[in-house]
Predict the structure.
Amino acid sequence: MYRRFVLFLSALSLYLMGCQGQEKQPNLANDAKKIPNKFARLFEISTTKTDTLLKIYGQYQHTIGQYFWGKSKKVENHIKINREGTYVALSAVFARMIHEFELSNRISGVDNLAYIPKDISLPNHCISLQQGGILNKESLLKIQPQITFTYLLDGNGEKEWKRLQQNNHAVVFVQSHLESHPLARAEWIRAIGWILGKPKTADSLFQQIETTYNRLKSENRVQESQTVMLNLPFEGIWHIPNDSAYFTQILRDAQFQPSWLIHTSLKGTGASSISMEDAIGFIQKSTFWLNLGAIKNKSEIGQVDSRLNSVINKRCPLIYQNDKQLEINGANSFWDLGTVHPEIILNDLIQIQKGTSSGALYFYRKL
């Protein structure tokens, strides 16, 4: 009898200890309070009494990453963020966001140093990790970063990246490139800022971006929208953004009318390819032609494809190239600074319609 009583007490003690241990973990279902986004769809910040939680979604709205930081040692199915060490930013956009919080001196690796604008101050020991598009895993692990900011294309690579996660290494998927609204892409600076321990700065910064963007949009009064065409063929394929794509939205917010969407419906947030014949037709119907690949002057357009000489030699739209900030090494802050601060691109586009001189534009110059 005595032995049974002792066994009962031991079992009861273990049960109570287990219950106490469970109580220390945040109740995600009941305690987490979501902090709503204004535009972004692919990340979610929430808080409990003890921790902050970040959930990130992939292309098809499925969860690809869950992270936490705070007082808890562990949260089920979440990776703990340790922000005290060094970071890896496998995109100039991510490096730009970290730079906005004056933490770029903590970046020990980037995708390619040649693509990072010089105003982003990186430490001397920072190295390229993804030259040619192939990740150098050995160099990444040798750096031993606390956080690697990367992204997924079409859902590929998720399992491989998660195998690289260790106790003190969190792989954070920044899916801003899948957001279709300019302010949704910019709002990812909130996710980055919260991760890096700068939530108030991040929220304030995004509020300034949103306010300026919406003010420029609302104050832009035009009597008639001007038609516009984009791009040049790349490796023989001419890509144009679809109806709900990121750059289509910026053009429309600037009161431009995309010539390729006047009589055609290209649904979706990505891009479509068109024939050279269709592209020439859209150019001839446009007042403006923007973002012409890597060319430096009009004479180079025909070198891309001789059929474009017919456009240059006859009626040609006003051409503006987005390379005014292009650096000698090929870095162009249009792609990173313009993503974080779409209000700068929007202002340029509005000024282009008004006939403002190139000297007053930030990213663009007239050819």
Summary: Residues 28-88+145-212 form one domain. The two ends are 97 Å apart (CA to CA). Confidence is low (pLDDT under 50) at residues 1-24.
